[in-house]
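In this supplementary section we document a worked example of the pipeline. Step one takes a protein sequence of length 367 as its only input; no multiple sequence alignment statistics are reported here. Step two produces a three-dimensional model, which step three serialises into structure tokens for compact storage. The input and output of this example are shown verbatim.
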Amino acid sequence: MKKKLISAVLCAVMTASLVAGCGLSGGSSASSSAPAAEPAAEAEAPAEGEAAPAASGDVIKLTMAEVNPLENTVCGAMDLKFKEEVERLSGGQIEIDLNGGGTLGVEADILDGMIGGTGTVDICRISAFALTSYGTKKSVLLSLPYTFADRNHYWNFANSELGQEFLNESEELGLGVKGLYFGEEGFRHFFTVADKPIASPADMKGMKIRVSNDPIMTKMVQSLGATPSPVSMSEIYTSMQNGTIDGAEQPTVNYAGNSFQEVGPNLTLDGHTLGAMMTIITDKAWNSLNEEQQGWILEAGKTASDYCREVSEQKEKEVLEQLKADGINVIDITDKTEWQAACKPIADEYAAGDLAEVYQQLLDLAK
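The serialised model returned by step three reads:
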């Protein structure tokens, strides 16, 4: 396949790489080139285990983790925009030491450290429903198949009061982290080996499809008639090549970026799940900032979120056009009724009880 062309498309729509981070490791810290001013006599000491808010002249260094590469990925573009905006708005008072490519560990390990207070990461971009493993309830709704009708539906949610409730949930539960802003990396679609295209759920019967080790994703594949296969992300290419699995699922940009079209030339645009993302910060890092500095973080997050929306849609369109030009069999599912019906029991199970009303509010934002 024309792998070089795909890479060119990916690079063309990305902004130029920002200046590299300071190469620092470790949690947040503060330093100043001038002696610190004497605190006012009436100033309250911070609670035990809580960092004191920094003075406006201090330099705050926050370590940020990204498990994906920073170059040529939607999440990397969003992270870089956040870093750029924080440092611009703060005039250098806050520096973001952004580490991509999983150099600080996998998502689960990073979250364990952030929530347990034992890690060195202050900020991290995660899957929007990753915190369900730590006790949040609402975020699981974002992973239910065929929930979002289109991108506008998702962004209506992300910018709504309901979206803010989802961001606030981890803080309200006392998990030690605070949600800052949402992002997305496009809808996820199935792709399969050359002789097994998928145009309807019936075509999936008996197929072995790789999905992440998540109960909802596993049940989705089973509901559509296929068998979920526990293959790691790094093994998808070779597993399809040697026939261990018949297919997998990824956002369009990731599909092309990993050259999966070489072993899975059938791309079925069913859009079963949106790749929703959330950026979080530890309570310790957040409390080390004064009110003005916290405002800069939130403003930068809003800018990064809006930028993500623009870049994600643009990259997806560019890549899809190139895939079609390269002869990939792109199967567009315009009527998802059959797919939604097959997966409805999953929503009935997870969006039950107190979450039923919340899920309906989420669905209503499509209007």
